[in-house]
C-alpha cells in the first residue's frame, strides 16, 4: 500500500511516532493495534494500571507425587478441570474437587493457598478464571502447575469480582490474542 498525506491510517497501515517504537522496543504489528494504543493512552493519563501493579502472581506446584494424592481426604488439589466453566459460576466449588494432597507432607506447605484470589488457567486461546474464597471446610487449596493464582495487592481499589469479569471482556481477550 502507498503512503499519502491524505491516507495515513488504514486497516493495514498505522503511522506511529518513533518515540513510541523506541519506548516499546518492538516493531511487532500486534503492539500497535487500536486496543493496545488505547490502553497506552489510558496508562499515560493515569486512568489505568498494569495488572502486575495490582496483583501478585503465584504459580502452582512443580509437581505432586502420585503417592501423595488421595481421593478422599487432605488439601484440595486444584487442576484446570476443577475450575468453573460458565461465567455465571465464578466461585471455586468444593464439589468439583476429586483429588486431595495429604497434608502431612511438609514439602507442599509453601504451596498452600489460604487467601482470596483469582485462579487462572489457559485452555487453548482462552482463559478460565475462577474465584477462590476460603470458607469453613474449604479453607485451603494446592494448585496444579497449570493453574495460577492472582492475589490483589493490599489496599487495591478493585475487587476480585471486577478482575474476574475483566478476564471475560472482549477488550482483554483481544489483547491476549494479539500477544
If you had to describe this structure to a student in words, what would you say it looks like?
By secondary structure, this protein is an alpha+beta fold. It is built from five helices and eleven strands, in the order αααβββββββββββαα. The protein has helices at residues 18-24, 34-45, 51-54, 160-166, 170-178, and strands at residues 55-59, 69-70, 75-78, 100-101, 112-113, 117-120, 122-123, 126-127, 130-132, 141-143, 148-152. The strands form three sheets. Strands 2-4-3-10-5 form a five-stranded mixed sheet, with no helix packed on it. The mean pLDDT is 79.
Search tags:
179 residues, alpha+beta, four-stranded antiparallel beta sheet, 5 helices
Summary?
The protein is of the alpha+beta class. The protein is built from 5 helices and 11 strands.
List the helices and strands and how they pair.
Blueprint: H1 18-24, H2 34-45, H3 51-54, E1 55-59, E2 69-70, E3 75-78, E4 100-101, E5 112-113, E6 117-120, E7 122-123, E8 126-127, E9 130-132, E10 141-143, E11 148-152, H4 160-166, H5 170-178
Parallel strand pairs: 3-10
Antiparallel strand pairs: 1-11, 2-4, 3-4, 5-10, 6-9, 6-11, 7-8
